[in-house]
Design a protein that fits this description.
Shape: elongated
Helix content: over 70%
Largest sheet: none
Number of helices: 9
Number of strands: 0
Strand content: under 5%
Structural class: mainly alpha
Radius of gyration: 18 Å
Order of helices and strands: HHHHHHHHH
Distance between the termini: 33 Å
Length: about 160
């Protein structure tokens, strides 16, 4: 059993891992609005320091309105930050968002959205993230040869921040 007094002390001193751990303990403890809000606050503190899992969890909270006001733009921002750091779950979510955007975008913009979806699903798939391979194959069926090549190039060029 973790020593939460020590974890809290480290979190209060700015330790991102300890802040993330406190966020998890609030998030997965008793399910109520106060715990959810406290979890979001601890995740935010760690996320602001570049903790990818905290960024991902904070994005999920914004996307669902759990402990914070529902805010799709904030969710997208935090997913992107976590994905840029190499978090496979965030990369999968970025792929989903780009795929959705490709279906809703004007024809001229849809190609770039498909390429980005391919890139993100490819990156998540390379880490073995659940369902990413199936989504990668679906997107691949919609790409032109040029789009596929560009998606491959973008995935190969990706370097986590």
């Amino acid at each position: 059993m973790p020593d939460f007094t020590e974890i809290r002390t480290k979190a209060d001193q700015g330790d991102a891992d300890a802040q993330f751990t406190l966020g998890l303990s609030c998030n997965f403890g008793a399910r109520d609005a106060q715990n959810d809000a406290e979890a979001a606050e601890w995740f935010r503190r760690a996320a602001d320091q570049g903790h990818a899992l905290a960024q991902f969890n904070l994005a999920v909270m914004y996307a669902s309105g759990q402990g914070v006001t529902f805010n799709e733009a904030e969710a997208a921002r935090w997913y992107r930050r976590a994905a840029d750091l190499g978090d496979a779950g965030a990369q999968f979510q970025m792929g989903m968002r780009c795929q959705r955007r490709s279906l809703e975008a004007p024809k001229d913009d849809a190609g770039d959205a498909r390429i980005e979806a391919y890139k993100w699903f490819n990156l998540a798939s390379a880490q073995g993230y659940k369902d990413s391979e199936a989504y990668l194959e679906r997107v691949n069926l919609t790409l032109t040869r040029e789009e596929f090549d560009e998606g491959q190039r973008r995935a190969a060029a990706f370097r986590p921040d």
